[in-house]
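Exercise 7b. Backbone tokens:
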């Protein structure tokens, strides 16, 4: 995107100021569909019908030969939550801003705000940022907003940074911290970062490229939803329920009664989900940074002393999982995450999750599908994609589609 095109479309400044019918799939590739669930009986005197919108819900073409990407990344989990603090390295001040688990995009602007409070205390006019992912770019933009000259030093940039391989959903409490390490201070800081970032994203709705969008999301389950139930992940710590602190930020969840939806499961909950079109969003952030006078240099750092030799005396360290090797931070635990991307479908404007098996997120750059609930990801550094597992997950979504097709036409109560 040329700078002048961006200026015409969105105006000067950073991002912070600022969905036909379903195509029939090849049945030969699909597993045999499960028998459709019989329609539930309606309460006496009630009238339940399918919503027209839900009845015609377009389906994802969940076919393995439509996979365009299978990617793996390691998310930087810290039991204590993100590290946002100052450290002196000779005459250089390092402001650490890393370790957000699976919440990097969802906490980025708030995290950058906290980092900038430390930067302001150094009273410098120029800083450097190490790292060019979600945290690095937002930190740099916040520094520019404060009037500072900023240089980003990074080995990789989009689309090669780890942030590119995120699911693209608003998940501010995705492996942010461990229950055993939770303190009132960590809870309060998480809430503030969440609220700041959420507010920033509301100002990006409707921008060219649709970097941020709201979509309906359907949670499908075979047993009743239990608000107090916790689903432990094998081999992982217990994670706290921080979302209760920010329930006011998202629309209320709605449980759909049997006969009002086409899904072949007894329990369906609809909610609203905020998603990031990462390709468009990351390009927008980079353009904002460059338009505001930022400089980007390709450089790799092997040890802290390499950073200390930079001309800037205040440095924001936004290296994410890379901080484990660069600063010897053994508190960072890698969490493997594999996702699959199917060819984009413009008509797919909803997301869904099926129990703890898999989820689907609609994005402009592809339909993202991810397996859930399995073990073996925590403290796993393996970044080799598992194509067989990817295809198996896609076929689970295909099976759901077959069951939805089989159920269409079943009359609802009247």
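Sequence design result:
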């Amino acid at each position: 995107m040329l700078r002048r095109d961006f200026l015409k479309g969105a105006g000067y400044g950073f991002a912070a100021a600022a969905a036909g019918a379903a195509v029939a799939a090849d049945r030969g590739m699909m597993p045999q569909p499960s028998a459709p669930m019989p329609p539930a009986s309606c309460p006496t005197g009630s009238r339940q019908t399918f919503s027209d919108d839900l009845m015609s819900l377009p389906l994802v073409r969940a076919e393995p030969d439509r996979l365009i990407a299978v990617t793996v990344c390691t998310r930087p989990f810290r039991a204590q939550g993100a590290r946002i603090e100052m450290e002196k390295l000779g005459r250089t001040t390092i402001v650490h801003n890393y370790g957000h688990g699976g919440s990097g995009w969802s906490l980025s602007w708030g995290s950058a705000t906290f980092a900038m409070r430390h930067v302001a205390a150094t009273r410098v006019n120029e800083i450097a940022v190490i790292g060019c992912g979600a945290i690095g770019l937002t930190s740099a933009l916040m520094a520019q907003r404060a009037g500072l000259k900023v240089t980003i030093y990074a080995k990789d940039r989009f689309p090669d940074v780890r942030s590119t391989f995120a699911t693209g959903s608003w998940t501010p409490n995705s492996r942010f911290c461990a229950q055993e390490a939770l303190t009132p201070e960590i809870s309060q800081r998480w809430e503030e970062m969440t609220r700041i970032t959420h507010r920033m994203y509301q100002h990006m709705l409707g921008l060219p490229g649709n970097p941020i969008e709201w979509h309906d999301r359907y949670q499908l389950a075979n047993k009743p939803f239990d608000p107090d139930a916790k689903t432990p992940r094998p081999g992982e710590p217990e994670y706290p329920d921080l979302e209760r602190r920010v329930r006011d930020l998202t629309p209320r969840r709605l449980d759909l009664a049997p006969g009002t939806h086409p899904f072949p499961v007894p329990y369906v909950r609809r909610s609203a989900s905020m998603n990031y079109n990462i390709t468009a969003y990351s390009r927008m952030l980079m353009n904002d940074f460059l338009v505001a006078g930022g400089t980007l240099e390709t450089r790799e750092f092997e040890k802290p002393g390499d950073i200390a030799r930079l001309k800037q005396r205040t440095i924001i360290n936004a290296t994410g999982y890379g901080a484990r090797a660069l600063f010897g931070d053994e508190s960072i635990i890698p969490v493997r995450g594999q996702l699959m991307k199917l060819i984009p479908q413009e008509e797919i404007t909803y997301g869904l999750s099926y129990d703890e098996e898999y989820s689907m997120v609609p994005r402009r750059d592809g339909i993202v599908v991810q397996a859930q609930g399995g073990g073996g990801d925590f403290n796993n550094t393996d970044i080799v994609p598992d194509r067989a597992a990817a295809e198996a997950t896609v076929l689970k979504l295909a099976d759901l589609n077959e069951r939805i097709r089989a159920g269409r036409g079943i009359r609802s109560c009247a």
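Instructor comment: DSSP finds nine helices and 14 strands in the chain. The mean pLDDT is 86.
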